[in-house]
Specification:
With 184 residues, the chain is mostly helical. It is built from nine helices and two strands. The protein has a two-stranded parallel ribbon with strand order 1-2. α6 packs across α7 (107-116).
Length: 184
């Protein structure tokens, strides 16, 4: 859905990807919202089933992350980041992003950014938490849930995990260079 002129003008893109299991769990609460009178069944188990069948409002996670990964190989204007890396070392990822953007931020500015992008701070910020978006019903679910890496372990049974891993390996096989952490 990106216009051709976007690629022709070499616009820069910052793409943030999150591992499939944490994404599926986190996004399951998002599906509880109603978007323009459309909704999907909520609940982690139901959503996880929809996830593996690619029956999602926004399309396949697999297609999305792999398409952007492949696109970045030939487009240096794409900076592909991993949520898990940002949680692990926010300062390091800010440095990488600053370099990509050609920013000459001072150490104090980078520290301010590091503070502002911490999950708990973003969750409280009306500019990032979607609380001002009328289409989303915060009485049903919040846009930003926990922001924890590996929380999927609290939601998957052993059998569900094995089924998910099998499906994941099948769908990600063609993109062996794209490696997410905390998958298995």
């Amino acid at each position: 859905m990106i216009p051709k002129s976007f690629w022709e003008q070499k616009c820069r893109v910052v793409y943030v990807a999150r591992n499939a299991k944490d994404n599926a769990v986190s996004f399951s609460t998002l599906t509880a919202w109603t978007y323009a009178n459309q909704s999907q069944e909520s609940g982690t188990a139901t959503y996880r089933d929809s996830w593996t069948e690619r029956v999602l409002l926004f399309g396949s996670w697999y297609d999305h992350v792999t398409d952007w990964w492949e696109r970045k190989q030939s487009h240096p204007e794409i900076h592909y980041m991993f949520f898990e890396d940002m949680v692990e070392d926010t300062g390091r990822e800010i440095d990488k992003l600053s370099s990509f953007l050609g920013s000459n931020s001072t150490a104090a500015e980078k520290e301010q950014i590091r503070h502002l992008v911490q999950f708990d701070n973003m969750k409280k910020n009306d500019m990032t938490n979607y609380s001002s978006c009328d289409e989303m019903d915060f009485n049903i679910s919040r846009f930003m849930r926990k922001g924890k890496v590996g929380d999927w372990k609290n939601h998957f049974t052993l059998a569900q995990n094995e089924q998910f891993d099998e499906d994941y390996m099948k769908k990600m096989k063609k993109n062996a260079s794209l490696q997410f952490r905390t998958i298995v």
